[in-house]
Amino acid sequence: MDGRQFVFCAVIQAAVLPAIRDNAGEVFGRPGEPPVKIACVGDSITYGTGLADRNKESYPVRLQQMLDLAFPGQYEVRNFGNPGRGIYLDSMRGSEKRGFRYMREHKAALDWKPDIVICNLGINDNGEYIKEYTGGRKRRQFVSDYLALLGDYKAAGANRLFVWTKLSPLAQGQKFHRSPEPFLMQADLEEIAWISGATGIDMQDPLREDMDEIFARDKIHPDAKGARIIAEKTFAALTGPVRREVVDIPVGGETETWICAGQSNMQKGWGEFNATAKEKERVESELARLDRVDIRFWDFNTGKWTKLNRENALRKSAFGVSFAIRRAEATGRRICMLYVAAGGAPTESFLSEQTMCAVGKDGKPVYPHLAAIATNRRRLDLNSDFPCAWVAREYPRRRGNKEEAYWWPVSLMYDCGIKRIKESGVRIDGILWYQGESNATTCVSPDRPTDRDYQLETLRAVVAELRGDRKVPFIMMGLPKMNRPWEQYRAAQKQVCGETGAVFVDTFAAGLGEPNDVHPRDKTAFADMAAAAAAQALAK
């Protein structure tokens, strides 16, 4: 963003957003009143280490400039950064304590009595954090120590808190580059923000695109361009809407709710299988059945519910809708579908980075292949650890298509869909999973299967991720017959279902599928099998 673009954006912000509001809607920064105090607390990145002139280039200074342009005289920003500091109260930096709560900057910030606090801490705790998972420290100490820090600012009168829930990236050559700690820490940072009522800020993605340039000096401290990006992201968080989405199930009557997730065979609607006379007859039969039941469809793309009818159902998941029709007919209930699917989406995109980077008591990755993919910090098309070359080849071709391109980075399906469902706490009765084509072979073509251990990892991880603590049926659709080397993947699906108690639907043994088409056109046969498996699992 050049100077002219920034001034234009600031003018627009000033015209549209006359002041900053807190979570309760209280307006800060009224003209003619004392300026609102914003304290930026944190480590060396907040302080401005490595910048040619931190008094002109650090992100708090840049943030002050942006606020002055948009809201002249209404905000005062101060920098309370201290290099090398972290969260743990028992952690040492040489012969002195590392914890920020011990620092004079913390006391100075409290004495100043800020209205708003923006906190960037955690990156210096990487070396100690893994001990929580290996028994060397009390589990969740990071969370408790961080909440205590934020509690100090609340007690001092801070009305609004911001926490970096995704920390600044670590470039290649830095000690913890490609280590699991920063990714495991994200889940705790998000929980900290939730418990404290803070607004989370993602500083990973905006800095990642040009990270080789931004972190060229020492692989950890952003340059002046990076500091400006941090300030822009913070300004947007301050002035943007504060909202936590809730996935509300439609009320009234008995309801059964299913997560319906996967790739193109879950995504494609009946309108795409409505060409021949036989297909038109099949689609008409499904729509006639739909007329007699109540199906509600939540689309993760929009976050909105739709009551399905003849017109709008043609664009929804053909397999998922037919499954829901059969469940509604069998139970007499309203069926609610929580839909999270996209063509070509690999299993990894449905997994949180925390799940992919999970470690055991020995400190070693639970899912070594997945940990390598997640810590690469690159999109799938640039991720050399991702085994499916088709995804790498397909992404650049689709990059110009805004409807599809953004689904490919690691964990995007999780972040945009699965995470929202989990955070809502909505009751789930079952999970319907139809995916695997993008993970079974190295090129999703008649080539060679991916590594068996990798296949098992992805399948175990997705059952654990989608199910969570819920003891609900997980219906896994086995890959059908086709002229591709899917035998090993089907065996892996069956093995993991046996291990986890998920239900394997053996479509291959049933003779379903088409030799030369990855998208079987008759979804009713698949829906029949899935609905029968669901009925049996729910009856147990």
Write the layout of secondary structure elements.
Elements lengths: L2 H14 L3 E2 L5 E2 L7 E7 L1 H4 L6 H4 L1 H12 L4 E7 L10 E2 L2 E2 L6 H9 L3 E5 L5 H4 L1 H4 L6 H15 L4 E7 L14 H16 L2 E4 L1 H5 L2 H4 L9 H16 L15 E8 L1 H4 L9 H14 L4 E5 L4 E4 L2 H4 L4 H14 L2 E8 L11 H4 L11 H8 L13 H10 L3 H4 L6 H13 L5 E5 L2 H4 L11 H16 L6 E4 L9 H14 L2 E3 L17 H17 L1
Parallel strand pairs: 3-4, 3-7, 7-8, 8-9, 10-13, 10-14, 11-13, 14-15, 15-16
Antiparallel strand pairs: 1-2, 5-6, 11-12
Helix pairs in contact: 1-4, 4-12, 8-9, 16-25, 23-24
Can you put this structure into words, describing what you see?
The chain is of the alpha/beta class. The chain contains 25 helices and 16 strands. The protein is elongated. Residues 1-18 have low confidence and may be disordered.
Looking at the chains present, what oligomeric state does this protein adopt?
single chain
Structural class by secondary-structure content: alpha/beta
Strand order of the largest sheet: 12-11-13-10-14-15-16
Number of helices: 25
What integer value in Å does the Rg equal? Answer: 25 Å
**Unreliable segments of 5+ consecutive residues:** 1-18
How far is the N terminus from the C terminus?
Answer: 59 Å
Please estimate the helix content. Answer: 40-55%
- Please give the domain count: 2
Mean pLDDT reading: 90
CATH fold node name of the largest domain: Rossmann fold
Give the CATH architecture of the largest domain: 3-Layer(aba) Sandwich
Main sheet specs: 7 strands, mixed
Coarse morphology: elongated
In percent, how much strand structure appears in the residues?
5-15%
CATH superfamily of the largest domain: SGNH hydrolase
Instruction: Write down the CATH class of the largest domain.
Output: Alpha Beta
The number of strands is 16
